[in-house]
Amino acid sequence: MAGMITAHLSPEGSARPRHIDESPLARRLLIGLALLFLALVVFIPLVSIFIEAFRKGLALYGAAITEPYALSALRLTLLTAAIAVPLNTLFGLAAAWAITKFRFRGKNVLITLIDLPFAVSPIISGLIFVLLFGAQGFFGPWLDERGIQIIFALPGIVLATVFVTFPFVARELIPLMQSQGSQEEEAAATLGASGWQMFRRVTLPNIKWGLFYGMILCNARATGEFGAVSVVSGHIRGQTNTLPLHIEILYNEYQFSASFAVASLLVLLALVTLLAKSAVEWRTSRAMAATQQPDPLAREGGANHAH
Amino acid sequence: MKSSNRVRLFVVLVTLSLMLAVAACGSGSNGNSSSSGNTGGAPDNDGVEAAGSNTGAQNEEVADTKEPKPPVQLLNVSYDPTRELYAEFNVAFAKHWKEETGQEVTIDQSHGGSGSQGRSVIDGIKADVVTLALGYDIEAIADAGIIDKGWQEEFERNSAPYTSTIVFLVRDGNPKNIQDWDDLIKEDVEVITPNPKTSGGARWNYLAAWGYALKQNGNDEEKAKEFVGKLFQNVPVLDSGARGSTTTFVEREIGDVLLAWENEALLSLEEFGEGKFEIVTPSVSILAEPPVAIVDKSVESRGTREVAEAYLEYLYSEEGQDIAGRNFYRPTLPEVAEKYKDQYQDIEMFEINRDFGGWVKAQEKHFNDGGIFDQIYVPGA
């Protein structure tokens, strides 16, 4: 679902008992296949981006990524992520909390709705907002009278991004919180903790790494989103162009090297995100190994949040 | 144990806060422009909220100075292949306007398929001027009440400062020996054209083919339908805009012939050098008149009418025409047209008003839902 894989770093977690292990040949074959496939579909294309980016030399590369339109696209992309990620963190926390701690009617509907952005095509995610806030849309005339611009401006881009990325945090937290159950909170309550104390002292420490992980995934998608943002952006250079849109524009203007230079910038952003993700995973597995939880289920919930 | 935990937590937090800091920088310097320019908020106190530009520095200037002519920003919503034209023209106009009035003007550009760009303006993008591929797309904006009716009389020559036509771009040596429209319906020929539903260039392509077929078959519409039907059966990809089609043909190397704007074809020759592609001029083509218009509703609310009008007027000036010629459009000013005449082949051309009864009629007959294009084009067929 999330499109990213969680590595299990603790050594004793990855080794399998000898009696169910495959023959060395099969093992090598499988590892070889996986590496080959990875090289073909991930590594080579990524490297080719950088090769293409530097084809016309460092000077052109520098010019392409410091050009005002590229910088403003970078700013817009980071700004959008800086708004979308905190919003979705709050929403994800609230939704996961509601779903795992309370019983209420329509819970399954809520769970399904959270998954909706994964299910619909990004172009629909964009068009929804055009239908709502476009000049001919439901709220269009009302907004127009008040001089408020939603689509073809920052608010529309942020809305579309929030819509597309809102499942990440919630999806990460729900299984985690479910597996943890509510015993610890109940214990805290019997000791007289208030709701806020309970959240801050018990729940948050238990879920923080899952939460970070969800935020990182959310951030990765928010900086890379193309389809939905493309629909609501209006493609105004220097104003409503995000990095992915800017790459397409450069490509269409025969500026191939420049477009790959900007693409490499986006790849670097993704790499920073991946580094943060690895750091979180490393921290999680260490924490797991250190606490040496006797209950294997809790362990599953903590470390295995890849889908 | 506890302290090493803290260290790790610290490392992770530093990484995350670095990311956030970068993001916050972005928001810091962009915050101003987004609150004034992008949201279009508070048009009450300054008609120049348009001046919310990309740089924080310029913004402060706007806020601090009380000069009568603060910097102004225009948005030109245009069609696909005009990117290079307006990149050059905008610089020239800004210089001209500064000399003329002392006012700074920056022009933002948005490009895409002509039909979809028109749709964006209808959906609320605050363009000051539109420079689209054909009259109908502007007419549609006028129908939505955003541009005043009668826009086509506002500027000279039906508001079309430059013209172009449709030619064929083929691969070097013309391996499929494509000479005229007839050759496009041969079974082994793959034709690249954008989608007439979204692209203006594609509608010119289609009408040129239609005109040719009518002419060949003594005005028999059924035969013409069959002809364009066969032609579109040879189209493997319909991109939404002309530039997308050019990239499909040139970069992705799909297809044997690209039906292209003459300016777009000449530009690809320039970009990729001779020896990779050739231009084939068909026996007959169509006079494409990409028109321009002021977006009345936007310029009224933003107070930019004067500069927007000057902007479009300047397209007709000698310098504007010269830039059009340099970018392979056909200038309409006779002196400048003379200068660039060797760039173009003489072609017999259909005219939209003379031969097809104007754009509104052509659009309804061919391209609206249920029109002839819908009847002849079966996706995936």
Automatic annotation (TrEMBL), chain A:
GO molecular function: ABC-type sulfate transporter activity
Alphabetically ordered keywords of this record: Cell inner membrane, Cell membrane, Membrane, Sulfate transport, Transmembrane, Transmembrane helix, Transport
Organism superkingdom: Bacteria
UniProt xrefs under InterPro entries: CysW_permease (IPR011866), MetI-like (IPR000515), MetI-like_sf (IPR035906), Sulph_transpt2 (IPR005667)
Stored CDD domains: TM_PBP2
Places the protein is found: Cell inner membrane
GO cellular component, one term: plasma membrane
Transmembrane segments: 29-51, 76-97, 109-135, 147-170, 210-236, 256-276
Membrane topology note: Multi-pass membrane protein
ABC transmembrane type-1 domain segment(s): 74-277
Function, in words: Part of the ABC transporter complex CysAWTP (TC 3.A.1.6.1) involved in sulfate/thiosulfate import. Probably responsible for the translocation of the substrate across the membrane.
Subunit structure: The complex is composed of two ATP-binding proteins (CysA), two transmembrane proteins (CysT and CysW) and a solute-binding protein (CysP).
PANTHER family hit by this protein: SULFATE TRANSPORT SYSTEM PERMEASE PROTEIN (PTHR30406), SULFATE TRANSPORT SYSTEM PERMEASE PROTEIN CYSW (PTHR30406:SF1)
NCBIfam families in the record: 3a0106s02, permease_CysW
Protein name: Sulfate transport system permease protein CysW
Species whose genome carries this gene: Paenibacillus sabuli
Organism phylogeny: Bacteria, Bacillati, Bacillota, Bacilli, Bacillales
From TrEMBL, chain B:
Region of interest (Disordered), residue spans: 27-74
Pfam families in alphabetical order: SBP_bac_11
Transmembrane segments: none
Any single GO CC term annotated in Swiss-Prot or TrEMBL for this entry: periplasmic space
Ranges of compositional bias, category Low complexity: 27-37
CDD domains according to UniProt: PBP2_CysP
Family membership: Belongs to the prokaryotic sulfate-binding protein family.
Name by which UniProt lists this protein: Sulfate-binding protein
Species of the source: Paenibacillus sabuli
Lineage start: Bacteria, Bacillati, Bacillota, Bacilli, Bacillales
